[in-house]
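thread: overnight batch results

M.L. [08:02]
morning all. the overnight job finished for the chain we discussed friday. pasting input first so we're all looking at the same thing
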Amino acid sequence: MAQKVLVEPIEHARLAVDLASERLASDVVLLDMRGVSDFTDYFVILTSETTRQMDGLAEDLEQALKGRGAALHHREGTSEGGWKLLDFGDVIVHMFGPEEREFYLLEGAWPEAVEVVRIQ
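M.L. [08:03]
and the structure it wrote out:
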């Protein structure tokens, strides 16, 4: 019988960061939210230059994380609206267009969070 392997949330978060970087998202940030938030362990925040890139990246992230055992609880937003959110429970991926990223400054809303990775 196949043994189920437990994948830690940090591994899912790092997979999301790596995939976003490979797909040319910009300013990719991984924040450790443990001790700061009771609803998630990690935020992955990234900027997507086009709606097409955002849609493709969202699809790729969903498939890759599901393939590693993460369950997508829900998604919000649209690329046309300049933002998307993929909620995998322990990892939440925030995707923004450039203007929306600058407007919302999500990292600033969580100053206590520890920045684990930033890829410009």
